[in-house]
Write a structure and sequence with these properties.
heterodimer, A: about 230 residues, 5-stranded parallel beta sheet, 4-stranded antiparallel beta sheet, 7 helices, about 25% strand, B: alpha/beta
Chain lengths: ~230, ~325
């Protein structure tokens, strides 16, 4: 299980999350809903170990993630992959698509062209597209590469933060199917963050409403960083 | 307080094409698009990212970069003197069209605003340029903004407030045609709903609305008419309820079926590159109905451009 307990995050003087708790179980899709600014993305970053909380604990399959400042330990960090809302802000513009997908493998010192091609094909990217620069492809194509990249190290958990908000219905259906097939094959747990109730209704096994107050797990929900 | 905008103004687009020259290639971003939007009606132009929707909007406002070539006609018919937008000079567009006849609600309003000035300063600039005597506070109040909210910088605005500021600026010159280019990008559902309600109200006041979006559900909420674009070409046009309720083009049917509350099944394959469209129907490589006939481009006939119109099969 990927378990966040009592997570508090402050940006400057403002509290983005206060004592929030959430559990992701292997093989399940947990939906997380709530309005803009309620702290969903902050929690996503905490659970993917991209952000160190000011208080609270995160445990990955029973191992507490503690004692880090700049980076969480690699063997824990690579168990969770994060897919962002805006692919254009999530890739290095100086890498070709094949390099974007293979970046985690290269960073781990084991580049693997075959694996890259296989993952790319899974998300619908083939041939010449893989030699393109990010500025030469559409948002949908770039997000396909980001999904492939997230799967390269076979994470135990996937955090999808508004993964399909920018995309048309067909690309959305495709990428959700890719994530679901990966989950079924590997038993990975998925956190699906979205403000679209129809999508979560279709995709998630259960939904935590982050603004509404009472999630299925103990602890306090996120508090609004700002209201709209 | 709001003056109803009355009249029989319309935007009539005929065979609009836009191509870009890039090193070693030619990108046909829009290919002979024809449609019409009238006062009191909302036309939604839908299609996936990169299909040419935004290029079309920019062509209408004369905002394309220098490597673009445009052909066709776009008549802005309102009052005594119609303007043909594609041939009009920048001076005419600036003096008579932008902000006055056509108001643009931009993609991602928060990033469209200058970060270094307050919302009020930017609204007042628009009013000054338009020679309007409207008071910023009154105008803002009409669209649900409090005076103190106008004194914020863009980074201090929530998504919903930034959206409203963009609306107020677009409407400062009281345009009769609203061009909304992906106005819901990154907004959550309640804010999308609110943005669509606002567009519907603008329609009901008698304005014409051209909504450009990839969000079929948003389009369904507000549009009277729908135009579906694929790889730079319109493939199906008609009343929104009919097009979405009984799609006749296989691409439209695929988009409708891909929605999470329907089959949630993607259309196979990827959209083609605009630099090398397949001969004939551009949807052919992804289409389950395609035959050899599809190697010739199907003409737009009765609101649908397809050799294998779906109603034939279901009749």
């Amino acid at each position: 299980m990927l378990e966040a307990t009592g997570i508090t995050v402050r940006y400057g003087g403002r509290t983005a999350l206060e004592a929030a708790s959430l559990t992701i179980r292997p093989g399940e899709v947990t939906g997380l809903a709530g309005p803009s600014g309620c702290g969903k993305s902050t929690l996503a970053r905490v659970m993917a170990m991209m952000l160190r909380p000011d208080a609270g604990t995160l445990t990955v399959d029973g191992v507490p993630v503690t004692g880090w400042r700049q980076r969480a330990p690699r063997d824990l960090r690579t168990r969770v992959a994060l897919i962002y809302q805006q692919p254009r802000l999530a890739v290095d513009p100086r890498l070709r698509l094949a390099e974007v997908i293979g970046e985690p493998l290269a960073a781990n010192g084991r580049p693997d062209g075959e694996r890259v091609a296989e993952l790319a094909a899974l998300t619908g990217l083939t041939g010449e597209l893989l030699t393109r620069w990010p500025h030469e492809v559409s948002d949908g194509q770039l997000q396909r590469a980001c999904v492939a990249r997230a799967l390269t190290l076979e994470p135990r958990y996937l955090v999808c933060d508004e993964m399909t908000t920018m995309l048309d219905a067909s690309t959305q259906a495709h990428l959700v199917a890719v994530v679901n097939a990966y989950r079924e094959r590997t038993g990975a747990g998925v956190l699906a963050i979205s403000h679209d109730p129809l999508l979560l209704d279709r995709w998630a096994d259960g939904v935590v409403d982050f603004a509404g107050g009472q999630g299925p797990t103990p602890g306090q929900p996120g508090r609004a960083l700002r209201s709209t | 307080m709001t003056q109803p905008v009355t009249g029989r103004g319309r935007l009539r687009v005929q065979d609009l094409s836009v191509a870009f020259r890039i090193p070693g290639a030619r990108v046909q971003a829009v290919d002979r698009a024809s449609f019409e939007v009238r006062q009191g009606r909302c036309l939604a132009l839908v299609g996936e990212s990169g299909c040419g929707k935004s290029v079309l909007a920019h062509a209408l406002l004369g905002l394309l970069p220098g490597n673009a070539t445009v052909s066709g006609q776009a008549w802005l018919e309102h009052g005594a003197e119609p303007v043909e937008l594609l041939a009009a000079s920048q001076a005419v567009l600036a003096r008579r069209v932008r902000g006055r006849a056509i108001g643009l609600i931009p993609q991602s309003p928060a990033t469209h605003l200058t970060p270094v000035r307050t919302a009020r300063a930017q609204l007042q600039e628009a009013l000054r340029e338009l020679g309007s005597r409207a008071v910023a506070d009154d105008l803002a109040a009409r669209y649900g903004l409090r005076p103190e909210e106008l004194d914020r910088y863009p980074h201090e605005l929530s998504g919903g407030m930034a959206q409203r500021v963009a609306n107020v600026i677009a409407l400062a010159g009281d345009p009769w045609l609203i061009l909304a280019d992906e106005p819901t990008g990154g907004l959550d559902r309640p804010l999308v709903d609110r943005a669509m309600t606002t567009l519907r109200e603008l329609c009901d006041e008698g304005r014409a609305v051209l909504l450009i979006t990839h969000d079929l559900r948003a389009a369904e909420q507000v549009a009277d008419d729908l135009a579906v674009m694929y790889a730079g070409r319109l493939v199906e046009v008609g009343p929104a309820a009919e097009v979405l309720g009984r799609p006749r083009h296989p691409y439209t049917a695929g988009l409708v079926a891909a929605q999470p509350n329907r089959d949630f099944v993607p259309i196979p394959g990827l959209p083609p590159e605009l630099t090398r469209l397949p001969a004939g129907c551009a949807f052919r490589p992804r289409c389950g109905h395609a035959t050899e006939r599809c190697a010739t481009l199907p003409p737009m006939d009765g609101g649908v451009a397809c050799h294998h119109v779906l109603e034939d099969r279901h009749a």
